[in-house]
Specification:
This protein has helices at 46-58, 103-106, 109-123, 134-138, 143-150, 159-169, 176-182, 193-201, and strands spanning 29-32, 40-43, 62-67, 72-76, 79-83, 87-91, 94-101, 128-133, 174-175, 205-207, 218-221. It has 247 residues and is α+β, with helices and mostly antiparallel strands. It folds into two domains: 29-140, 3-Layer(aba) Sandwich (Trna Endonuclease, Chain: A, domain 1); 145-221, no CATH class. The strands form four sheets. Strands 3-6-7-8 form a four-stranded mixed sheet. Strand 6 (87-91) and strand 7 form a beta hairpin. Helix 1 packs across helix 5 (143-150). The protein is elongated, with a radius of gyration of 20 Å.
Length: 247
């Protein structure tokens, strides 16, 4: 599994500092993923584990994720500082850095100033630097549908079922129930609703995440020239220096 990161930053697929520790007092854990060669990725916080990584995994725009992937040196108020961003992702063929924060922490002006200074250093190297807030992720109307799809992430389909679904979908949008009905002639091997949703959870077909997940969901071919709207929120710290919303 090879990833083509943009030049400008050295990206390590192994975290440059320890993310998950059995003795850690922070809420962390491991996330199962198909977008990292290890098959799992560590998280430092609940927003990273239950929000950001779930969205990234279910977003067809995202094809690679690395945690604590690089270190960035920068200056703030005449002092030398070092920053280990939370994640690097390849999103719609672009390499981006993401920092995950709670809105409560982001409301601290000192934190926003530090992130803005780190972002300047990263953006000067040709990369985008975005902050994903827990409230922005949780309040996205699509998130509850993303969670429902994430529960289908374990692959339960075979190659024949995948091929049959892709052929039945054709070049337009179709309801899951209609695709399943068209394929009943395959008998015991016919894909059922759960197989189609598992295909969608693994990016083999694209699914409409603006509506509840189920037999009525609209699906289409996984055409990478026509990607769906991205799921990851984006805030530039420099734009939020006067941000005053409280958590």
């Amino acid at each position: 599994m090879m990833f083509r990161w943009w030049p400008g930053l050295d990206i390590s697929m192994t975290p440059l500092r320890k993310v998950v520790s059995r003795s850690s007092s922070v809420n962390n854990g491991w996330h199962r993923t198909t977008k990292h060669p290890a098959g799992f990725i560590g998280a430092e916080s609940r927003p990273e584990l239950a929000l950001f990584l779930v969205l990234a995994e279910m977003d067809p725009n995202v094809t690679a994720i690395a945690a604590q992937p690089t270190k960035v040196d920068f200056e703030l108020d005449g002092k030398s500082c070092r920053h280990f961003p939370d994640f690097a992702v390849i999103e719609a063929e672009a390499s981006r850095i993401y920092e995950v924060k709670t809105a409560r922490k982001y409301a601290d002006e000192a934190i926003r100033r530090r992130l803005s200074a780190a972002a300047r250093s990263i953006e000067a190297r040709g990369w985008s630097y975005d902050v994903a807030l827990d409230t922005d992720m949780r309040n996205d109307p699509r998130f509850r549908h993303v969670e429902a799809l994430w529960r289908r992430h374990r692959p339960i389909y075979d190659k024949l079922q995948q091929f049959a679904v892709e052929q039945a979908v054709g070049t337009g949008e179709r309801r899951v129930a209609d695709v399943v009905a068209d394929l009943t002639q395959l008998g015991d091997k016919a894909p059922r609703t759960e197989h189609v949703l598992s295909l969608a959870a693994n990016g083999k077909v694209f699914i409409d995440l603006t509506a509840p997940i189920g037999p009525a969901s609209l699906i289409r071919r996984a055409d990478r020239s026509a990607l769906p709207e991205p799921l990851l929120p984006k805030r530039r710290p420099a734009d939020d220096l006067q941000w005053a919303d409280a958590a």
